[in-house]
């Protein structure tokens, strides 16, 4: 099975730049979960273009505890 690339090199670069703000959402409930979800948001939005429920589910999975 051949996989289709959804994300471009520029998407990875944007995610890397957004990672500088990872600590802004730090709290003791989920540590870096909020910042991590913020880093992934543009890429997830592109992956789940027309699937609003899939996007919500992916974001809620990535907001959970991350350290």
UniProtKB/TrEMBL annotation:
<dbReference type="Pfam" id="PF03613">
    <property type="entry name" value="EIID-AGA"/>
</dbReference>
<protein>
    <submittedName>
        <fullName>PTS N-acetylgalactosamine transporter subunit IID</fullName>
    </submittedName>
</protein>
<dbReference type="InterPro" id="IPR004704">
    <property type="entry name" value="PTS_IID_man"/>
</dbReference>
<dbReference type="InterPro" id="IPR050303">
    <property type="entry name" value="GatZ_KbaZ_carbometab"/>
</dbReference>
<dbReference type="GO" id="GO:0005886">
    <property type="term" value="C:plasma membrane"/>
</dbReference>
<dbReference type="GO" id="GO:0009401">
    <property type="term" value="P:phosphoenolpyruvate-dependent sugar phosphotransferase system"/>
</dbReference>
């Amino acid at each position: 099975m051949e996989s289709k690339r959804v994300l471009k090199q520029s998407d990875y670069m944007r995610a890397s730049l957004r990672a500088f703000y990872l600590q802004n959402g730090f709290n003791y409930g989920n540590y870096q979960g909020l910042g991590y979800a913020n880093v992934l948001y543009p890429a997830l939005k592109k992956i789940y273009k027309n699937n609003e429920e899939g996007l919500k589910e992916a974001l809620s999975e990535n907001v959970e505890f991350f350290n």
